[in-house]
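Exercise 7. Predict the joint structure of the components listed below.
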Amino acid sequence: MTTEVNAAAEAGTASAAEAPRAAAGDARPHGSAIEGAGHWWQERVSALAALLLWVWFAVSLLRLPSLDRAIVAEWLSSPLAAVPMLLLVAATFWHIRLGLQVLVDDYVHDEGSKLFWTVIIHFAAILGAAFALFAVLKLALAAAPVG
Amino acid sequence: MAPHLTVYKWGPHMLVSILHRITGAGLAVVGGIALVWWLWAAADGADSYDAFTGWARHWLGIVIGIGLTWALIQHTLTGLRHFALDIGAGYELSTNKKWSLATLVIGVVLTAALWAWILRGLWS
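Solution:
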Protein backbone atom coordinates (compact mmCIF):
# COMPACT_ATOMS: atom_id res chain seq x y z
CA MET A 1 0.00 0.00 0.00
CA THR A 2 2.67 2.50 1.07
CA THR A 3 4.96 1.51 -1.75
CA GLU A 4 2.15 2.01 -4.23
CA VAL A 5 1.51 5.53 -2.97
CA ASN A 6 5.21 6.45 -3.04
CA ALA A 7 5.56 5.04 -6.49
CA ALA A 8 2.60 7.08 -7.66
CA ALA A 9 4.04 10.27 -6.09
CA GLU A 10 7.46 9.71 -7.61
CA ALA A 11 5.90 9.08 -10.96
CA GLY A 12 4.29 12.54 -10.71
CA THR A 13 0.74 11.30 -10.72
CA ALA A 14 -1.81 12.42 -8.15
CA SER A 15 -2.06 9.80 -5.44
CA ALA A 16 -4.92 9.62 -2.99
CA ALA A 17 -2.70 10.09 0.07
CA GLU A 18 -0.17 12.70 -1.10
CA ALA A 19 -2.00 15.13 -3.36
CA PRO A 20 -4.55 16.52 -0.84
CA ARG A 21 -1.80 16.97 1.76
CA ALA A 22 0.38 18.92 -0.66
CA ALA A 23 -2.57 21.14 -1.68
CA ALA A 24 -3.45 21.91 1.95
CA GLY A 25 0.20 22.70 2.71
CA ASP A 26 0.32 25.16 -0.19
CA ALA A 27 -2.94 26.80 0.73
CA ARG A 28 -2.54 27.01 4.50
CA PRO A 29 -0.20 30.05 4.77
CA HIS A 30 -2.48 32.09 2.47
CA GLY A 31 -5.90 31.17 3.80
CA SER A 32 -8.40 33.43 5.48
CA ALA A 33 -8.07 31.18 8.54
CA ILE A 34 -4.63 32.73 9.09
CA GLU A 35 -4.99 36.48 8.41
CA GLY A 36 -8.67 36.91 7.58
CA ALA A 37 -10.07 36.13 11.01
CA GLY A 38 -7.58 38.47 12.71
CA HIS A 39 -8.40 41.26 10.27
CA TRP A 40 -12.15 40.66 10.67
CA TRP A 41 -11.89 40.75 14.47
CA GLN A 42 -9.71 43.90 14.55
CA GLU A 43 -12.13 45.63 12.18
CA ARG A 44 -15.01 44.99 14.64
CA VAL A 45 -13.03 45.98 17.75
CA SER A 46 -11.73 49.20 16.16
CA ALA A 47 -15.27 49.95 14.93
CA LEU A 48 -16.67 49.60 18.45
CA ALA A 49 -13.89 51.76 19.92
CA ALA A 50 -14.38 54.40 17.21
CA LEU A 51 -18.17 54.33 17.73
CA LEU A 52 -17.89 55.02 21.48
CA LEU A 53 -15.19 57.69 21.02
CA TRP A 54 -16.99 59.50 18.18
CA VAL A 55 -20.21 59.65 20.22
CA TRP A 56 -18.15 61.18 23.07
CA PHE A 57 -16.51 63.57 20.56
CA ALA A 58 -19.84 64.69 19.02
CA VAL A 59 -21.41 65.28 22.44
CA SER A 60 -18.30 67.18 23.59
CA LEU A 61 -18.32 69.48 20.53
CA LEU A 62 -22.05 70.18 20.92
CA ARG A 63 -21.47 71.13 24.56
CA LEU A 64 -18.73 73.66 23.70
CA PRO A 65 -19.96 77.28 23.53
CA SER A 66 -18.29 77.65 20.10
CA LEU A 67 -15.57 76.07 17.97
CA ASP A 68 -13.27 79.12 18.19
CA ARG A 69 -9.61 78.18 18.52
CA ALA A 70 -9.29 79.42 22.10
CA ILE A 71 -12.30 77.32 23.16
CA VAL A 72 -11.03 74.18 21.41
CA ALA A 73 -7.49 74.67 22.79
CA GLU A 74 -8.84 75.19 26.31
CA TRP A 75 -10.97 72.03 25.98
CA LEU A 76 -8.04 69.89 24.75
CA SER A 77 -5.76 71.21 27.52
CA SER A 78 -7.66 68.94 29.89
CA PRO A 79 -6.36 65.34 30.08
CA LEU A 80 -9.97 64.15 30.25
CA ALA A 81 -10.44 65.53 26.71
CA ALA A 82 -6.91 65.00 25.33
CA VAL A 83 -6.62 61.31 26.26
CA PRO A 84 -9.93 60.22 24.66
CA MET A 85 -9.00 62.37 21.63
CA LEU A 86 -5.67 60.51 21.28
CA LEU A 87 -7.57 57.22 21.52
CA LEU A 88 -10.10 58.46 18.93
CA VAL A 89 -7.31 59.27 16.46
CA ALA A 90 -5.64 55.88 17.04
CA ALA A 91 -8.87 53.85 16.75
CA THR A 92 -10.10 55.83 13.74
CA PHE A 93 -6.91 55.56 11.69
CA TRP A 94 -6.51 51.88 12.56
CA HIS A 95 -10.08 51.31 11.37
CA ILE A 96 -9.34 53.37 8.22
CA ARG A 97 -6.33 51.17 7.45
CA LEU A 98 -8.33 47.97 7.91
CA GLY A 99 -11.32 49.22 5.91
CA LEU A 100 -9.30 50.47 2.93
CA GLN A 101 -7.41 47.15 2.93
CA VAL A 102 -10.72 45.36 2.34
CA LEU A 103 -11.38 47.55 -0.72
CA VAL A 104 -7.90 46.81 -2.09
CA ASP A 105 -8.23 43.06 -1.42
CA ASP A 106 -11.66 42.94 -3.09
CA TYR A 107 -11.23 45.29 -6.06
CA VAL A 108 -7.50 45.35 -6.95
CA HIS A 109 -6.66 42.06 -8.61
CA ASP A 110 -3.15 42.60 -9.97
CA GLU A 111 -0.64 41.46 -7.34
CA GLY A 112 1.78 44.33 -8.01
CA SER A 113 -0.94 46.99 -7.74
CA LYS A 114 -2.29 45.29 -4.61
CA LEU A 115 1.13 45.49 -2.96
CA PHE A 116 1.53 49.13 -4.04
CA TRP A 117 -1.85 50.21 -2.61
CA THR A 118 -1.36 48.18 0.55
CA VAL A 119 1.87 50.08 1.24
CA ILE A 120 0.23 53.44 0.37
CA ILE A 121 -2.67 52.73 2.77
CA HIS A 122 -0.29 51.88 5.62
CA PHE A 123 1.89 54.94 5.02
CA ALA A 124 -1.07 57.33 4.66
CA ALA A 125 -2.92 56.02 7.72
CA ILE A 126 0.16 56.15 9.95
CA LEU A 127 1.16 59.58 8.58
CA GLY A 128 -2.32 60.99 9.24
CA ALA A 129 -2.43 59.48 12.72
CA ALA A 130 1.03 60.82 13.58
CA PHE A 131 0.17 64.40 12.58
CA ALA A 132 -3.17 64.27 14.43
CA LEU A 133 -1.62 62.77 17.59
CA PHE A 134 1.18 65.36 17.54
CA ALA A 135 -1.37 68.17 17.24
CA VAL A 136 -3.45 66.89 20.17
CA LEU A 137 -0.34 66.43 22.33
CA LYS A 138 0.89 69.92 21.45
CA LEU A 139 -2.42 71.45 22.56
CA ALA A 140 -2.56 69.25 25.66
CA LEU A 141 1.01 69.92 26.80
CA ALA A 142 1.26 73.59 25.79
CA ALA A 143 -1.07 74.50 28.63
CA ALA A 144 0.87 72.48 31.20
CA PRO A 145 3.49 74.43 33.15
CA VAL A 146 6.91 72.79 32.85
CA GLY A 147 9.29 72.53 35.84
CA MET B 1 -24.88 37.54 -18.55
CA ALA B 2 -24.51 34.84 -15.91
CA PRO B 3 -27.95 33.49 -14.98
CA HIS B 4 -27.50 34.12 -11.24
CA LEU B 5 -27.28 37.86 -11.91
CA THR B 6 -30.73 38.00 -13.48
CA VAL B 7 -32.66 36.39 -10.64
CA TYR B 8 -31.83 39.10 -8.07
CA LYS B 9 -34.21 41.99 -7.53
CA TRP B 10 -32.54 45.24 -6.47
CA GLY B 11 -33.38 45.98 -2.82
CA PRO B 12 -32.48 48.37 0.01
CA HIS B 13 -30.19 45.77 1.62
CA MET B 14 -28.00 45.84 -1.51
CA LEU B 15 -28.01 49.64 -1.51
CA VAL B 16 -26.91 49.97 2.14
CA SER B 17 -24.30 47.25 1.64
CA ILE B 18 -22.53 49.16 -1.12
CA LEU B 19 -23.20 52.50 0.63
CA HIS B 20 -21.30 51.16 3.66
CA ARG B 21 -18.23 50.74 1.48
CA ILE B 22 -18.64 54.03 -0.42
CA THR B 23 -19.20 56.08 2.75
CA GLY B 24 -16.31 54.23 4.40
CA ALA B 25 -13.93 55.11 1.56
CA GLY B 26 -15.12 58.74 1.52
CA LEU B 27 -14.76 59.09 5.28
CA ALA B 28 -11.31 57.46 5.22
CA VAL B 29 -9.91 59.89 2.64
CA VAL B 30 -11.87 63.17 2.93
CA GLY B 31 -12.85 62.74 6.60
CA GLY B 32 -9.32 61.68 7.54
CA ILE B 33 -7.83 64.77 5.90
CA ALA B 34 -10.46 67.05 7.51
CA LEU B 35 -9.81 65.64 11.01
CA VAL B 36 -6.03 66.02 10.70
CA TRP B 37 -6.36 69.50 9.18
CA TRP B 38 -8.70 70.71 11.99
CA LEU B 39 -6.47 69.38 14.79
CA TRP B 40 -3.27 70.58 13.13
CA ALA B 41 -4.74 74.06 12.53
CA ALA B 42 -5.84 74.31 16.16
CA ALA B 43 -2.37 73.33 17.38
CA ASP B 44 -0.47 75.46 14.84
CA GLY B 45 -1.97 78.86 15.68
CA ALA B 46 -4.56 81.51 14.93
CA ASP B 47 -3.62 82.01 11.26
CA SER B 48 -3.85 78.29 10.47
CA TYR B 49 -7.15 77.99 12.34
CA ASP B 50 -8.58 81.01 10.48
CA ALA B 51 -7.59 79.38 7.18
CA PHE B 52 -9.42 76.20 8.20
CA THR B 53 -12.58 77.95 9.38
CA GLY B 54 -12.50 80.11 6.25
CA TRP B 55 -12.76 76.98 4.11
CA ALA B 56 -15.24 75.33 6.47
CA ARG B 57 -17.62 78.32 6.22
CA HIS B 58 -17.27 78.56 2.42
CA TRP B 59 -20.27 77.05 0.59
CA LEU B 60 -18.02 74.28 -0.75
CA GLY B 61 -16.82 73.51 2.77
CA ILE B 62 -20.40 73.39 4.00
CA VAL B 63 -21.36 70.97 1.20
CA ILE B 64 -18.39 68.74 2.10
CA GLY B 65 -19.28 69.05 5.80
CA ILE B 66 -22.87 67.98 5.17
CA GLY B 67 -21.62 65.09 3.03
CA LEU B 68 -19.15 63.94 5.71
CA THR B 69 -21.82 64.20 8.43
CA TRP B 70 -24.26 62.09 6.40
CA ALA B 71 -21.50 59.60 5.50
CA LEU B 72 -20.44 59.25 9.15
CA ILE B 73 -24.01 58.70 10.39
CA GLN B 74 -24.89 56.34 7.51
CA HIS B 75 -21.64 54.35 7.95
CA THR B 76 -22.26 54.13 11.72
CA LEU B 77 -25.85 52.91 11.24
CA THR B 78 -24.93 50.32 8.60
CA GLY B 79 -21.99 49.37 10.85
CA LEU B 80 -24.47 48.68 13.66
CA ARG B 81 -26.51 46.66 11.13
CA HIS B 82 -23.38 44.61 10.44
CA PHE B 83 -22.92 43.98 14.17
CA ALA B 84 -26.48 42.59 14.27
CA LEU B 85 -25.83 40.43 11.19
CA ASP B 86 -22.51 39.25 12.73
CA ILE B 87 -24.33 37.73 15.70
CA GLY B 88 -26.72 36.01 13.28
CA ALA B 89 -29.74 38.28 13.70
CA GLY B 90 -31.87 40.04 11.09
CA TYR B 91 -31.46 37.76 8.08
CA GLU B 92 -35.21 37.28 7.52
CA LEU B 93 -36.07 39.06 4.25
CA SER B 94 -38.63 41.45 5.77
CA THR B 95 -36.44 42.26 8.81
CA ASN B 96 -33.38 42.82 6.62
CA LYS B 97 -35.36 45.16 4.35
CA LYS B 98 -36.91 47.06 7.28
CA TRP B 99 -33.58 47.81 9.03
CA SER B 100 -31.84 48.65 5.75
CA LEU B 101 -34.53 51.24 5.01
CA ALA B 102 -34.36 52.48 8.61
CA THR B 103 -30.62 53.28 8.31
CA LEU B 104 -31.31 55.32 5.15
CA VAL B 105 -34.17 57.30 6.71
CA ILE B 106 -32.46 57.91 10.08
CA GLY B 107 -29.23 58.92 8.31
CA VAL B 108 -30.93 61.63 6.25
CA VAL B 109 -33.15 62.86 9.12
CA LEU B 110 -30.29 63.17 11.64
CA THR B 111 -28.03 64.91 9.10
CA ALA B 112 -30.78 67.38 8.14
CA ALA B 113 -31.63 68.11 11.79
CA LEU B 114 -28.00 68.66 12.81
CA TRP B 115 -27.17 70.91 9.86
CA ALA B 116 -30.39 72.92 10.20
CA TRP B 117 -29.23 73.67 13.76
CA ILE B 118 -25.62 74.45 12.67
CA LEU B 119 -26.64 76.70 9.77
CA ARG B 120 -29.18 78.55 11.91
CA GLY B 121 -26.35 79.41 14.34
CA LEU B 122 -23.95 80.25 11.50
CA TRP B 123 -26.32 82.66 9.71
CA SER B 124 -28.05 84.29 12.67
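Discussion. The mean pLDDT of chain B is 94.
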